[in-house]
Structure formats: C-alpha cells, structure tokens
Amino acid sequence: MTITKTKQPAFHITGEKGWINDPNGLIFFKGKYHVFFQHHPYDTKWGPMHWGHVVSEDLTHWEYLPNALTPADPFDSFGCFSGSAIEHDGKLWLLYTGVVENQGGETFRQLQCLAESEDGITFKKHGIVIGEDVLPSEYEPWNFRDPKVWRYNDSFWCVVAAKKRDGNGKVLLFKSSDLFKWEFVSDIFDKNFEGAMIECPDFNQELGYILLSEQFQPKEEGSLNVHTSRWHVGMLDYEKGLFTEKARGTMDYGFDLYAPQTFEGAPIVIGWLNMWDRNIPSAEYGFAGMLTVPRKICVKNDRVYQTPVVKTNGGEEMSVKGELVDQVVKGVITIKAQGLKEFNLRLRDNGENYTELYLKDNKWVFNRSRSGKEIVGVETDSDSLAGIRRMPCSNGQEIELTIVMDEFSVEIFEDGNVLSSTIYPPEDATKLTLSVKADNCTYLKEDVE
Ligand code: FRU
Fold first, then answer.
1. What is the pLDDT of residues 62-103, one digit of tens each?
2. Is the pTM of this model over 0.85?
3. Where are the beta strands (DSSP E) in 216-316?
4. 22 CB within 6 A, ligand 1
5. Quick check: CB of 145 below 6 Å from ligand 1?
6. 308 φ/ψ angles, rounded to the nearest 5 degrees
7. Catalytic status, residue 252
C-alpha cells in the first residue's frame, strides 16, 4: 500500500508514515535519546512489526533514522515485537521478541532475540537467546514477549511477559552474565493476575517500580479502559526472585496510554498515546499511532509523580479575572490557581466542536464527546460511552495544571497525575475559553520551539 502522510503532530513522535504502537528500547546512548517503536511502515494498520527509530538531544525535536529491525530472519519472520535496550562494552544492545508464525495457534513462537550496534543506527542480529530450552515447560512459548533488560550487581537481568498454559498473565525473571546465555530465575509475583495477559513489564531498580500493561484486568479506581497500564511500587528480592508490592496506581486517567517504558539511564517514561480496540481516525492522514511526550518520573512516599518534558520558549503569564479567551492549537498551557472554586475550560472550539475540562466533586472531568472525528472503543460503562474520563484533583489551596496540546492530543498533568487522550478536531477549532472562580488565577501559554 502506498501511503502519503498529509498531516502529523508537531512534536509528538509518530512513524515517518504508517502504523506505530509501543515505544521500545528507550535509552540515552552516546549523547542522544534513542526511541524505537513498534512500526508497520507499509500500512496504517498493525502488521509485520519493524522497529522504527528516532533520536533527539532535547527530548522535543526528533530525527528519523532508518528502521532498526526488520522482520526478515527465520527467528523473527512474523514480527520484531517489543523489547528494550542496554549499553554494554560501548555498544547498544537490543533484546526483543522474535515472532515466528509456522501454522499459527500452538505452533506460533514468541522468543527473545538479541541485536547489537556500534553506532546506535545499524544493528546486527544474533538470533534467539531466550528460547524454549530456557522457558519452563508450564508456560506457553506462543505468549512470551516484551523483555525489559537492566544491569544489577554485575549481572544482566530481564523480565518477560508470559502466560501459564491455560492460565493467566505472568512476569518471569531471567539472569545472564553476557546477554547471550540466560537462565530462568522465577515468576516474580506469587499471585495470579486475573486478566488474560500482562504485557510490556518495565522494571526499574533506581525508581523502585514495575510498570505493567494489563489486558482485560478487573477494573480498579481510575482506570476504565479495558487495557490499563499501572505502576506497582515495591522491591525486587533478587535472591528469592520475588517482587513485593507496596502500592499501585494508574499511569494515566485518560483514554489513551499503553505500554509505557522507562529510559535506560534516565528517569523518563514514554508510552503509546493510543489504545487497542479503538479506531484511529488519523489513518486518513497517513499515520496511525503516536507516542506521549516524555514524562519525568519521581517516586515519593510510594507514589509515582509524572511531569511533562517539552522544550518551550517561555511566554507571558496573565492574570485571569473570571474569563479568558485565547487561540491555541498546540503548545503548553499552565494554569495556576489559589482557592479554586469553579473551573471550566473549552479547548479546540469552533462552536460546534470542542473539548472540555471542568471540575466536579473534586475531580477533573475531561469530555471529548464533541471533540471531532468519532473514536469508538469496546468499553460499555456510562463514562466511556459519554466520552468522559476523570482524574482526582489535588484539591490543595494551590493548583498547578499543565496541559500539553498538539494537533491530535491533549495531555493534562496535575499533582503528578496525568490524563492523556487523542482528539481529532477540525482545523478551524482553535478557540480556548477559560472560566474560573478563584481567589487568584494565572494563565501562561508557551510555544513549543
Ligand atoms: C503491546 C503489544 C506487545 C507486543 C506488541 C506487538 O501493545 O501487544 O505485547 O510485543 O504490542 O506489536
């Protein structure tokens, strides 16, 4: 299929053309941030997965590099699925899932493969390094994917998403001294997850958490999406091979966030700014799928706090007395308020189409039902059907709300929480109206340089 890209987000990562999903192999290597991603360059639908590749020095301006991995070898001919990166001996190494179809069903294989690069641009594949001989026989070799690698105490470790034969999602730990020979250590959770599959486990020793993308899990506070990415703060006991969870929460209160991954070498996370089982209207512009802006992570009192990382050119703070009107399609909006009693914001408004954020019962309520092109998901709860998502409001005396707007997305940050959603408004929907009742309120609009 020939694809022509007619539009694209201004500063969010997307494929040069075609489809993208999970961010992969996030690493700071030789002075640059490298972001790889699941990519089908020949269609705006998911298909044979390549690893697309972009680099940046400032986490805002991204440069396209050639695809790093192509599904062209006997061990990954059906796809180069998600994985991670690590620096070793001055080289960049990728651990990813090679998928082979055979005749489908139980003959399908998802096994972990290794690739290396001197320059971080061209990769040499080494084939399977965690195969069926290493995976204990009670797990399905056709549901075994998304390795996340790290170094601890002179060894390499990785967690991989797995599934018990006829059972539930699991996260398995493996150990290696050289990235080539791996041994099985343990199933790191001594409980059964209820849902079908855990994907993209993202353990980080320094931050003390594991992020899990959980498919078809029971609903919990804050996550109405059928597939949800959660943080689990806790400790990994390397001797016992067990992760003890102290607290958990959602990575995002919005419609669109999946498969977040933490950079090797920096406390920064990027996720997929879309969701499985939904249509992606931008396919008609030649691209489907975007990544979130980078988010700086910190963990305080067993809670994950996220703030956006985007380079802006400053701007002038204005005081808001009752109502403020502006024109914005993309940029970063910061609203600070003391003694906030009422808050109503309309974005990307042309009278007929608009996106809303308001405060109700101590929650931020986001409504995209009139944003523009229709997005339909599989969720059947009343909020999802009404285009609504809610996020707790810190409700402190002082509120600082940051909204990162790009042509097809809104990412709302407050008190370390995030609510991210795609929107597909008409081009003339540019008006912003802010109405507040507060003791004091300021508004700042910054352009992304
Ligand atoms: C998560 C996921 C991964 C898999 C990849 C395939 O979104 O399903 O488990 O490796 O996407 O593109």
1. 999 999 999 999 999 999 999 999 999 999 999 999 999 876
2. yes
3. 227-237, 242-250, 258-262, 268-272, 287-288, 295-300, 303-308
4. yes
5. yes
6. -75, 150
7. no
